[in-house]
Specification:
single chain, alpha/beta, TIM Barrel, 2 domains, 8-stranded parallel barrel, 13 helices, globular, disordered C terminus, binds phosphoenolpyruvate, binds manganese (II) ion
Length: about 325
């Protein structure tokens, strides 16, 4: 192996052990210029350990930007050469792994839409057999810890020994404050299941906007997470994907400087974690209650409208009234 590649391998090994581990870069690698300008800006902060960029973008809706694919990998290689910072990309297939390895990508991550599919996770893990590279696995989109644990175990079984987790929040019905609800008790449970495994927070995909990034980042630090993955872009408003949640390298520096890296004692840490777990469980129950109440109100409204129509069509204060009163009375109890 060339010396430069070996040096980068050693650097990546050091970064893997560094706490906090800070990963940043654009949601998508859009052009060479955007990639290099963002990477240079991030290098100037002096705070970024690994540069990220999406090359293959799994999209929810057709017509959205699907990533530049393999043509973007040399841009990352160039960004690494200029800044000296290792790079990471998302992989979802064996071909992605092969291409990423061909361009000496230093670390990989498995996205939320891949973690939900055990076939895909197995394919990626098989492709990585015998390749010594750190891999971070995002939680699945839905709050299913068995899928997340399953993906981690598949990777470990394939012989990968540098495996970590990224918490990017979960899709949930009704919780509108976040793009993906953090449900902190779930990553806390994963920490319990996989002690010592790095756990990184991705506040960008939890928040879906810039305003909550700071508080979510701080919350993860208070919960003893091992690092952050935050999306950044040289011109966030004009980003081709996830424009609302990306920040400039300057804003990232401000955000990172504003964080308090507490070093709580183990007892204090256990107390914070237990309290967060209980609070989060209450939030969850509250959310479900509110969603159900909302659904009930809608049904109740429908009954009202239905009654109105029926009353104007059929209701006559005559002998027939008694046939209608009964069911109306029963509904009244539900209103
Ligand atoms: C991303 O990191 O750009 C991404 C697609 O994230 P997720 O898999 O969390 O949706
Ligand atoms: Mn993104």
């Amino acid at each position: 192996m060339q010396t430069a590649v070996l040096d980068m391998k050693t650097l990546m090994q050091d970064k893997w052990k560094k706490r906090p581990l800070i990963i940043s870069g654009p949601c998508s690698a859009e052009s060479e210029e955007q990639m290099l300008q963002t990477a240079t800006g991030l290098a100037n902060t002096g705070m970024v350990d690994v540069l990220r960029a999406g090359i293959w973008k799994p999209r929810t809706k057709p017509g959205m930007f699907e990533g530049n694919g393999i043509v973007a990998l040399p841009w990352l290689a160039k960004a690494k050469k200029i800044t000296g910072i290792p790079v990471t990309v998302e992989v979802a297939t064996a071909k992605h792994v092969e291409d990423a390895m061909h361009f000496d990508v230093d670390m990989l991550w498995i996205g939320a839409r891949t973690t939900v599919n055990p076939f895909s996770v197995q394919e990626v893990a098989d492709a990585l057999r015998g390749i010594d590279i750190p891999v971070l696995i995002k939680n699945p989109i839905n709050p299913d810890l068995e899928l997340w644990s399953g993906a981690l175990n598949v990777c470990k079984k394939a012989g990968m020994n540098q495996v970590g987790m990224i918490h990017r929040g979960f899709s949930s019905y009704g919780n509108t404050e976040y793009r993906n609800a953090p449900m902190w008790h779930l990553p806390i449970e994963m920490k319990r299941r996989f002690p010592g495994m790095p756990l990184i927070c991705d506040p960008s995909h939890i928040c879906g906007n810039r305003t909550m990034l700071q508080s979510i980042s701080q919350k993860s630090i208070d919960l003893d997470f091992d690092g952050l993955m935050i999306e950044s872009h040289i011109d966030p408003d004009n980003a081709w994907s996830d424009a609302k949640q990306q920040v400039t390298p300057e804003k990232l520096l401000e955000l990172l400087n504003g964080l308090v890296w507490r070093h709580e004692s183990t007892t204090a840490q256990e107390f914070i974690t237990a309290l967060t777990t209980l609070r989060e469980q209450i939030n969850q129950v509250d959310d479900e209650l509110l969603t159900l109440l909302g659904q009930r109100m809608k049904l109740s409204d429908k009954i009202g409208q239905y009654k109105k129509t029926m009353t104007s069509l059929f209701y006559k204060p005559t002998a027939g009234t008694k046939y209608w009163k009964g069911p109306f009375k029963k509904e009244k109890r539900l209103d």
